[in-house]
Amino acid sequence: MKTRILVTGAAGFLGSHLTDRLLAEGHVVIGVDNLSTGNTDNLAHLENESRFTFESRDICEPFDVGQVDYVFNFASPASPPGYMRLGVETLRVGSLGTENALRIAERYKAGFLHASTSECYGDPLEHPQSESYWGHVNPIGPRSVYDEAKRYAEALVMAYCRYRGVNTHLVRIFNTYGPRLDPDDGRVISNFLMQGLRGEALTIYGNGQQTRSFCYVSDLIEGIMRLSRTFEHLPVNIGNPDEFTVLECAQEVIGVTNNMSGISYEPAVEDDPTRRQPDITRARELLKWEPKITLRHGLELCLPYFRSKL
Ligand code: NAD
Ligand code: UDP
Q1: Pocket residues for ligand 2 (CB within 6 Å)?
Q2: pLDDT tens, 40-78?
Q3: Which of 70, 108, 146, 160 is catalytic?
Q4: Rg (CA), the chain
Q5: pLDDT one-digit tens code per residue, 139-173
Q6: Which structural domains are found in the chain, ordered by start?
Q7: Is the pTM above the cut of 0.90?
Protein backbone atom coordinates (compact mmCIF):
# COMPACT_ATOMS: atom_id res chain seq x y z
CA MET A 1 0.00 0.00 0.00
CA LYS A 2 1.30 3.45 -0.91
CA THR A 3 1.62 5.65 2.17
CA ARG A 4 2.73 9.21 2.87
CA ILE A 5 5.76 9.23 5.12
CA LEU A 6 7.63 12.00 6.96
CA VAL A 7 11.38 11.55 7.42
CA THR A 8 13.10 14.09 9.69
CA GLY A 9 16.84 14.38 9.12
CA ALA A 10 16.31 13.26 5.53
CA ALA A 11 19.43 15.04 4.21
CA GLY A 12 21.66 13.14 6.62
CA PHE A 13 23.51 9.88 6.18
CA LEU A 14 20.85 7.49 7.51
CA GLY A 15 17.81 9.64 6.64
CA SER A 16 18.78 9.74 2.96
CA HIS A 17 19.27 5.95 2.78
CA LEU A 18 15.95 5.43 4.55
CA THR A 19 14.29 7.82 2.08
CA ASP A 20 15.69 5.81 -0.84
CA ARG A 21 14.36 2.59 0.64
CA LEU A 22 10.88 4.05 1.24
CA LEU A 23 10.70 5.44 -2.29
CA ALA A 24 11.85 2.08 -3.69
CA GLU A 25 8.90 0.49 -1.87
CA GLY A 26 6.53 2.90 -3.66
CA HIS A 27 5.78 5.35 -0.83
CA VAL A 28 5.49 9.13 -0.97
CA VAL A 29 8.17 10.78 1.19
CA ILE A 30 8.36 14.26 2.68
CA GLY A 31 11.90 14.90 3.88
CA VAL A 32 12.63 17.73 6.32
CA ASP A 33 16.05 18.84 7.48
CA ASN A 34 17.72 22.03 8.71
CA LEU A 35 21.01 21.04 7.05
CA SER A 36 22.98 21.60 10.27
CA THR A 37 24.98 18.41 9.76
CA GLY A 38 23.30 17.05 6.63
CA ASN A 39 23.77 17.96 2.99
CA THR A 40 21.34 18.18 0.08
CA ASP A 41 23.99 16.36 -2.02
CA ASN A 42 22.67 13.23 -0.27
CA LEU A 43 19.30 13.84 -1.96
CA ALA A 44 20.53 15.24 -5.30
CA HIS A 45 19.69 11.98 -7.11
CA LEU A 46 16.00 12.51 -6.19
CA GLU A 47 15.69 15.84 -8.00
CA ASN A 48 13.25 14.42 -10.57
CA GLU A 49 11.46 12.03 -8.21
CA SER A 50 7.82 13.17 -8.11
CA ARG A 51 7.06 11.13 -4.96
CA PHE A 52 9.69 13.03 -2.95
CA THR A 53 9.52 16.56 -1.58
CA PHE A 54 12.10 18.31 0.58
CA GLU A 55 11.44 21.04 3.14
CA SER A 56 14.29 22.94 4.71
CA ARG A 57 13.19 23.52 8.30
CA ASP A 58 14.22 23.16 11.92
CA ILE A 59 11.94 20.62 13.61
CA CYS A 60 12.40 22.41 16.95
CA GLU A 61 9.79 24.86 15.64
CA PRO A 62 6.23 23.40 15.50
CA PHE A 63 5.41 22.33 11.94
CA ASP A 64 2.88 20.44 9.86
CA VAL A 65 3.32 18.66 6.54
CA GLY A 66 -0.31 17.54 6.17
CA GLN A 67 -1.64 14.05 6.65
CA VAL A 68 1.00 11.34 7.01
CA ASP A 69 0.79 7.62 7.76
CA TYR A 70 4.21 7.25 9.32
CA VAL A 71 6.95 9.41 10.87
CA PHE A 72 10.62 8.41 10.98
CA ASN A 73 12.42 10.76 13.38
CA PHE A 74 16.10 10.82 12.42
CA ALA A 75 16.97 14.51 12.93
CA SER A 76 19.89 15.06 15.33
CA PRO A 77 23.59 15.72 15.10
CA ALA A 78 25.17 12.28 15.47
CA SER A 79 28.98 12.47 15.38
CA PRO A 80 30.78 13.34 18.64
CA PRO A 81 32.50 16.44 17.15
CA GLY A 82 29.15 17.43 15.60
CA TYR A 83 27.10 17.25 18.79
CA MET A 84 29.84 18.81 20.88
CA ARG A 85 29.87 21.78 18.45
CA LEU A 86 26.05 21.93 18.49
CA GLY A 87 25.46 21.10 22.16
CA VAL A 88 22.34 23.14 22.85
CA GLU A 89 20.90 22.37 19.41
CA THR A 90 21.38 18.65 20.09
CA LEU A 91 19.45 18.84 23.37
CA ARG A 92 16.74 20.89 21.67
CA VAL A 93 16.24 18.53 18.73
CA GLY A 94 16.13 15.52 21.05
CA SER A 95 13.48 17.18 23.22
CA LEU A 96 11.50 19.89 21.37
CA GLY A 97 12.14 18.45 17.91
CA THR A 98 11.17 14.92 18.94
CA GLU A 99 7.99 16.22 20.59
CA ASN A 100 7.02 18.20 17.46
CA ALA A 101 7.50 15.04 15.38
CA LEU A 102 5.48 12.99 17.91
CA ARG A 103 2.66 15.55 17.77
CA ILE A 104 2.41 15.02 14.03
CA ALA A 105 2.13 11.25 14.57
CA GLU A 106 -0.54 11.82 17.23
CA ARG A 107 -2.50 14.29 15.05
CA TYR A 108 -2.65 11.96 12.04
CA LYS A 109 -2.74 8.65 13.93
CA ALA A 110 0.52 7.76 12.20
CA GLY A 111 3.14 5.23 13.23
CA PHE A 112 6.33 6.66 14.70
CA LEU A 113 9.88 5.34 14.75
CA HIS A 114 12.60 7.17 16.64
CA ALA A 115 16.32 6.81 15.94
CA SER A 116 17.78 6.22 19.38
CA THR A 117 21.31 5.10 20.05
CA SER A 118 23.69 2.73 21.80
CA GLU A 119 24.91 5.92 23.49
CA CYS A 120 21.94 5.51 25.87
CA TYR A 121 24.14 2.85 27.50
CA GLY A 122 26.95 5.39 27.99
CA ASP A 123 30.27 3.77 29.01
CA PRO A 124 28.59 0.45 29.73
CA LEU A 125 29.28 -1.71 32.76
CA GLU A 126 27.41 -4.60 31.13
CA HIS A 127 28.83 -6.30 28.05
CA PRO A 128 27.46 -6.92 25.49
CA GLN A 129 24.61 -4.44 25.91
CA SER A 130 21.06 -5.78 25.90
CA GLU A 131 17.98 -3.57 25.92
CA SER A 132 17.31 -4.35 29.59
CA TYR A 133 20.53 -2.56 30.63
CA TRP A 134 19.80 0.97 31.97
CA GLY A 135 23.17 2.41 31.11
CA HIS A 136 26.06 4.28 32.70
CA VAL A 137 25.99 7.88 31.53
CA ASN A 138 27.82 10.93 32.86
CA PRO A 139 24.93 13.45 32.91
CA ILE A 140 27.21 16.52 32.85
CA GLY A 141 30.16 15.33 30.74
CA PRO A 142 30.94 16.49 27.19
CA ARG A 143 28.86 13.69 25.62
CA SER A 144 25.85 14.37 27.86
CA VAL A 145 24.24 16.75 25.35
CA TYR A 146 23.75 13.77 23.06
CA ASP A 147 23.34 10.89 25.51
CA GLU A 148 20.83 12.67 27.73
CA ALA A 149 18.92 14.14 24.78
CA LYS A 150 18.51 10.61 23.44
CA ARG A 151 17.54 9.21 26.84
CA TYR A 152 14.96 11.99 27.33
CA ALA A 153 13.67 11.33 23.81
CA GLU A 154 13.17 7.66 24.65
CA ALA A 155 11.15 8.64 27.76
CA LEU A 156 9.09 11.06 25.66
CA VAL A 157 8.41 8.47 22.96
CA MET A 158 7.33 5.93 25.59
CA ALA A 159 5.05 8.58 27.16
CA TYR A 160 3.37 9.32 23.80
CA CYS A 161 2.87 5.57 23.44
CA ARG A 162 1.51 5.01 26.96
CA TYR A 163 -0.54 8.17 27.48
CA ARG A 164 -1.42 9.33 23.96
CA GLY A 165 -1.83 5.99 22.20
CA VAL A 166 0.75 6.58 19.46
CA ASN A 167 2.10 3.39 17.83
CA THR A 168 5.78 4.12 18.55
CA HIS A 169 9.02 2.26 17.93
CA LEU A 170 12.47 2.82 19.39
CA VAL A 171 15.56 1.59 17.59
CA ARG A 172 18.87 1.76 19.46
CA ILE A 173 21.32 2.12 16.61
CA PHE A 174 24.92 1.01 17.11
CA ASN A 175 27.79 2.55 15.07
CA THR A 176 26.70 2.47 11.44
CA TYR A 177 28.73 3.44 8.37
CA GLY A 178 28.45 3.54 4.61
CA PRO A 179 28.40 5.87 1.61
CA ARG A 180 27.07 9.40 2.43
CA LEU A 181 28.72 9.52 5.83
CA ASP A 182 30.00 13.07 5.97
CA PRO A 183 33.76 12.70 5.27
CA ASP A 184 34.46 15.63 7.60
CA ASP A 185 32.17 14.88 10.53
CA GLY A 186 34.88 13.19 12.56
CA ARG A 187 33.48 9.70 13.02
CA VAL A 188 36.02 6.93 13.06
CA ILE A 189 35.16 5.15 9.79
CA SER A 190 35.00 8.37 7.75
CA ASN A 191 38.20 9.71 9.33
CA PHE A 192 40.09 6.45 8.75
CA LEU A 193 38.87 5.95 5.16
CA MET A 194 39.72 9.55 4.16
CA GLN A 195 43.12 9.32 5.87
CA GLY A 196 43.75 5.90 4.30
CA LEU A 197 42.86 7.10 0.79
CA ARG A 198 44.95 10.29 1.20
CA GLY A 199 47.96 8.22 2.25
CA GLU A 200 48.03 9.85 5.69
CA ALA A 201 48.58 8.16 9.06
CA LEU A 202 45.34 7.01 10.71
CA THR A 203 44.61 8.96 13.93
CA ILE A 204 43.79 6.71 16.90
CA TYR A 205 42.51 8.53 20.00
CA GLY A 206 43.91 6.85 23.11
CA ASN A 207 45.53 3.40 22.95
CA GLY A 208 43.12 1.96 20.38
CA GLN A 209 41.94 -0.80 22.74
CA GLN A 210 38.44 0.69 23.06
CA THR A 211 35.94 -1.34 21.04
CA ARG A 212 33.06 -0.65 18.67
CA SER A 213 30.84 -2.92 16.57
CA PHE A 214 30.24 -1.55 13.08
CA CYS A 215 27.08 -2.12 11.04
CA TYR A 216 26.84 -1.49 7.29
CA VAL A 217 24.02 0.89 6.36
CA SER A 218 21.96 -1.52 4.21
CA ASP A 219 21.80 -4.02 7.09
CA LEU A 220 20.66 -1.28 9.47
CA ILE A 221 17.94 0.02 7.12
CA GLU A 222 16.58 -3.52 6.69
CA GLY A 223 16.33 -3.92 10.48
CA ILE A 224 14.60 -0.55 10.84
CA MET A 225 12.07 -1.36 8.12
CA ARG A 226 11.23 -4.64 9.85
CA LEU A 227 10.80 -2.92 13.22
CA SER A 228 8.54 -0.24 11.69
CA ARG A 229 6.06 -2.94 10.62
CA THR A 230 5.65 -4.39 14.14
CA PHE A 231 3.69 -3.33 17.20
CA GLU A 232 6.82 -3.55 19.38
CA HIS A 233 7.08 -0.41 21.50
CA LEU A 234 10.09 -1.24 23.66
CA PRO A 235 13.62 -0.47 22.40
CA VAL A 236 15.32 -2.85 19.98
CA ASN A 237 19.09 -2.87 19.39
CA ILE A 238 20.08 -2.86 15.74
CA GLY A 239 23.78 -3.23 15.08
CA ASN A 240 26.44 -5.69 14.05
CA PRO A 241 27.70 -7.77 16.98
CA ASP A 242 31.19 -8.26 15.45
CA GLU A 243 33.31 -6.31 17.93
CA PHE A 244 36.61 -4.66 16.91
CA THR A 245 39.14 -2.64 18.84
CA VAL A 246 39.72 0.73 17.21
CA LEU A 247 43.23 -0.51 16.40
CA GLU A 248 41.80 -3.57 14.60
CA CYS A 249 39.42 -1.27 12.74
CA ALA A 250 42.41 0.87 11.66
CA GLN A 251 44.17 -2.27 10.43
CA GLU A 252 41.12 -3.24 8.35
CA VAL A 253 41.05 0.24 6.77
CA ILE A 254 44.79 0.10 6.11
CA GLY A 255 44.14 -3.23 4.36
CA VAL A 256 41.40 -1.96 2.04
CA THR A 257 43.13 1.34 1.23
CA ASN A 258 46.69 -0.10 0.87
CA ASN A 259 47.88 2.72 3.12
CA MET A 260 51.60 2.68 4.00
CA SER A 261 51.64 5.63 6.42
CA GLY A 262 50.77 3.73 9.58
CA ILE A 263 49.06 5.03 12.69
CA SER A 264 49.40 8.20 14.73
CA TYR A 265 48.30 8.04 18.38
CA GLU A 266 46.46 11.13 19.65
CA PRO A 267 45.21 11.94 23.18
CA ALA A 268 42.20 9.94 24.38
CA VAL A 269 38.76 11.60 24.21
CA GLU A 270 37.04 12.43 27.53
CA ASP A 271 34.33 9.94 28.54
CA ASP A 272 34.99 7.81 25.43
CA PRO A 273 33.08 4.53 25.98
CA THR A 274 35.59 1.72 26.42
CA ARG A 275 33.52 -1.16 25.03
CA ARG A 276 30.44 -1.38 22.87
CA GLN A 277 28.76 -4.44 21.39
CA PRO A 278 25.06 -4.98 20.78
CA ASP A 279 23.23 -8.00 22.08
CA ILE A 280 20.85 -8.52 19.14
CA THR A 281 18.84 -11.42 20.57
CA ARG A 282 15.65 -9.34 20.54
CA ALA A 283 16.14 -8.25 16.92
CA ARG A 284 16.83 -11.86 15.92
CA GLU A 285 13.69 -13.11 17.65
CA LEU A 286 11.25 -10.27 16.96
CA LEU A 287 12.37 -9.24 13.50
CA LYS A 288 14.10 -12.38 12.24
CA TRP A 289 16.92 -9.96 11.44
CA GLU A 290 20.67 -10.13 11.60
CA PRO A 291 23.39 -8.25 9.71
CA LYS A 292 25.00 -9.84 6.66
CA ILE A 293 27.88 -7.55 5.71
CA THR A 294 31.30 -7.96 7.33
CA LEU A 295 33.40 -4.91 8.21
CA ARG A 296 35.93 -5.75 5.50
CA HIS A 297 33.25 -6.04 2.80
CA GLY A 298 31.43 -2.91 4.02
CA LEU A 299 34.65 -0.89 3.91
CA GLU A 300 35.23 -2.05 0.33
CA LEU A 301 31.67 -0.99 -0.57
CA CYS A 302 32.45 2.50 0.81
CA LEU A 303 35.57 3.08 -1.27
CA PRO A 304 33.99 4.61 -4.44
CA TYR A 305 32.06 7.19 -2.36
CA PHE A 306 35.02 8.22 -0.21
CA ARG A 307 37.31 8.35 -3.29
CA SER A 308 34.81 10.77 -4.85
CA LYS A 309 35.22 13.04 -1.80
CA LEU A 310 39.04 13.29 -1.99
P1 NAD B 1 23.59 12.91 10.15
O2 NAD B 1 24.22 14.04 10.88
O3 NAD B 1 24.17 12.52 8.84
O4 NAD B 1 22.03 13.15 9.96
C5 NAD B 1 21.25 13.86 10.89
C6 NAD B 1 20.39 14.86 10.11
O7 NAD B 1 19.55 15.58 11.01
C8 NAD B 1 21.25 15.93 9.39
O9 NAD B 1 20.88 15.98 8.03
C10 NAD B 1 20.93 17.22 10.13
O11 NAD B 1 21.04 18.36 9.29
C12 NAD B 1 19.51 16.94 10.60
N13 NAD B 1 19.10 17.78 11.73
C14 NAD B 1 19.77 17.99 12.90
N15 NAD B 1 19.07 18.82 13.69
C16 NAD B 1 17.93 19.13 13.03
C17 NAD B 1 16.81 19.95 13.33
N18 NAD B 1 16.73 20.63 14.48
N19 NAD B 1 15.81 20.05 12.42
C20 NAD B 1 15.88 19.38 11.24
N21 NAD B 1 16.92 18.59 10.90
C22 NAD B 1 17.93 18.46 11.78
O23 NAD B 1 23.63 11.65 11.16
P24 NAD B 1 23.16 10.14 10.93
O25 NAD B 1 24.31 9.25 11.21
O26 NAD B 1 22.42 10.01 9.65
O27 NAD B 1 22.14 9.98 12.15
C28 NAD B 1 20.74 10.00 11.95
C29 NAD B 1 20.04 9.64 13.25
O30 NAD B 1 20.44 8.34 13.68
C31 NAD B 1 20.39 10.59 14.40
O32 NAD B 1 19.24 10.80 15.19
C33 NAD B 1 21.43 9.83 15.19
O34 NAD B 1 21.44 10.19 16.54
C35 NAD B 1 20.97 8.39 14.99
N36 NAD B 1 22.07 7.44 15.16
C37 NAD B 1 23.02 7.28 14.19
C38 NAD B 1 24.06 6.37 14.40
C39 NAD B 1 25.12 6.11 13.36
O40 NAD B 1 26.03 5.33 13.62
N41 NAD B 1 25.07 6.67 12.18
C42 NAD B 1 24.15 5.65 15.60
C43 NAD B 1 23.16 5.87 16.56
C44 NAD B 1 22.11 6.73 16.33
N1 UDP C 1 38.25 7.50 17.03
C2 UDP C 1 39.60 7.42 16.74
N3 UDP C 1 40.08 8.18 15.72
C4 UDP C 1 39.30 9.00 14.97
C5 UDP C 1 37.91 9.07 15.27
C6 UDP C 1 37.42 8.31 16.32
O7 UDP C 1 40.36 6.68 17.38
O8 UDP C 1 39.83 9.63 14.03
C9 UDP C 1 37.71 6.63 18.10
C10 UDP C 1 36.86 7.34 19.14
O11 UDP C 1 37.68 7.89 20.16
C12 UDP C 1 35.97 6.21 19.62
C13 UDP C 1 35.76 5.35 18.37
O14 UDP C 1 36.84 5.69 17.49
O15 UDP C 1 36.64 5.44 20.58
C16 UDP C 1 34.43 5.58 17.67
O17 UDP C 1 34.30 6.98 17.49
P18 UDP C 1 33.11 7.65 16.67
O19 UDP C 1 33.31 9.12 16.80
O20 UDP C 1 33.01 7.10 15.30
O21 UDP C 1 31.76 7.19 17.40
P22 UDP C 1 31.29 6.94 18.91
O23 UDP C 1 31.07 5.48 18.96
O24 UDP C 1 32.35 7.37 19.86
O25 UDP C 1 30.06 7.74 19.03
Answers
A1: 79-80, 175, 187-188, 191, 203-205, 210, 212, 246, 269, 272
A2: 999 999 999 999 999 999 999 999 999 999 999 999 999
A3: 146
A4: 19
A5: 999 999 999 999 999 999 999 999 999 999 999 99
A6: 4-176+215-238 (3.40.50.720), 178-212+242-281+293-304 (3.90.25.10)
A7: yes
